[in-house]
Amino acid sequence: MGLKQFERKLEQLVEGAFAKAFRSGLHPVEVGRRILREMDDNRQVGVRGITAPNHFTVWLSPEDRQRFESLETSLARELTEYAREHARQEGYHFVGGITIEFETDDGMKKGDLFVDAEVDDEGLGLVGSLVLPSGERVSLGDQTTLVGRVDECTVTLDDPKVSRRHAEIRPAGDAYRLIDLSSTNGTEVNGRKVSDQVLTDGDRIRIGDSVLVFEAS
Q1: How far apart are CA 139 and CA 129, in angstroms?
Q2: To 10 degrees, the CA torsion angle through 166, 146, 1, 40?
Q3: Closest to 207 (Cα-Cα) out of 175, 171, 160
Q4: Dist CA 100 CA 118 (whole Å)
């Protein structure tokens, strides 16, 4: 999904019941664009490439904060996806999960906007995530993630084409490795059957009839 499509999703958040409240003043799209600007301005070049900030604090006036309050959870989720897409297009990586929080500054006026951006790796080791067909995101950490048909799996897929213990994703140095566990129907990455594969950002993993997307952030 391109950035324009994400901006359209941000616009859709305030349509209908919230449209009247957002006819004037600060709009969520402006917040998204400011976050991307802060990512660009605060990126750092290191041995692994370009690292972008992953923690953002959005400061709003009391009036704008009140207008945003009813959709902050949905807005933070969409802004996170917006930031991920920008990072993917620019070749940035993150050292931890993306977090976006909203705060009120009593000294700010309606329409004012300030965003703090920082790299936050406190307490985090290797990070990544799997996006399931439902849109749910499963965080990958320092433990092995098991994918299969039985309830004991970390990710359970209700599909007869999926083996009971089909595949696992395990940390391997500074990356994640996908291992097919001798499944009946095999595992594909980007349309190619694999048994042992190091994952890269955006890889599409097909297990049975389900496609899971790996995100290296």
Answers
A1: 4
A2: -150
A3: 160
A4: 11
Assigned token pair, 96: 């931890």
Rounded CA-CA distance 140/128 in Å is 5
Q: Report in angstroms the alpha-carbon separations of 59 from 65, 74, 111.
A: 8, 17, 11
Contact indicator for 51, 119 with CB cutoff of 8 Å: yes
- The Cα-based distances of 58 to 34, 89, 93, 122, 165 in angstroms read 9, 23, 21, 20, 43
By the 8 A CB rule, do 34 and 115 touch? yes
pLDDT of 141 higher than 70? yes
What is the spatial distance between Cα 158 and Cα 192, in angstroms, rounded to a whole number? 23
**Which residues lie below 8 Å from residue 183, measured CB to CB, with a gap of 6+?**
162, 163, 166, 167, 207
Q: Is 125 exposed, middle or buried (0-12, 13-18, 19+ CB in 10 A)?
A: exposed
Region of 64 (left: φ > 0; alpha: ψ -120 to 50; beta: rest) is alpha
Tokens linked to 119: 């790299």
CB 147 within 8 A of CB 157: yes
The tens digit of pLDDT for each residue in 60-111 reads 999 888 888 878 888 888 888 888 888 888 888 887 778 899 999 999 998 8
* Closest to 60 (Cα-Cα) out of 10, 98, 13, 106: 106
